[in-house]
Fold this protein.
Amino acid sequence: MLRYKPIFRIRNRLNIIKTLFFLIIIQSVFLIPVSQGKDWWDQKLKNPFLIGEGVLKVFIWDIYELRLFSKTNIYDRNDIFVLEFEYLRDTSKASVIKASIVELKKLNLSKTKLEKWEKYLEKSIKDMKAGEKAALLFRPNLGITFYASDRFNITIDNVEFANSYIDIWLGDNTARPKLRKQITGQIK
């Protein structure tokens, strides 16, 4: 009987290793979250490069993490790119629109234009929960597409609006220049 104990131990260890390997495979396939970019916005931007990322903070709260993706590994305002938002806290549609309008007012737009652009935002933005992602697909000289899930996307074919709206984060006169530098890959 003593001669069979080492074989039994080896078989037992092999079974444990097989079980662990199987669990790792299951976890890899089913439990690890995959970037939503692989399911929705990268249909327009194949094999995207991550240019940079940063977190928008308001007072002491982290609101969302921003990631800038492009077709190349260098940010170019004249090329198609995606700005992805991963919400770190629940954020209402109303608060996003209000903050956007505050930033757009800095451009000294006419009241009529600002009202029109607010209507664009009303149809393009939705309430977001912590952990959800949204994205802006910027197409120079064409417009901007808002994504909030695989089922929600709205395209605004107004070049002036697209440029002004994306400038909230990427413009030279953004209210958050450090965040701009982070997401455009200028600083880590």
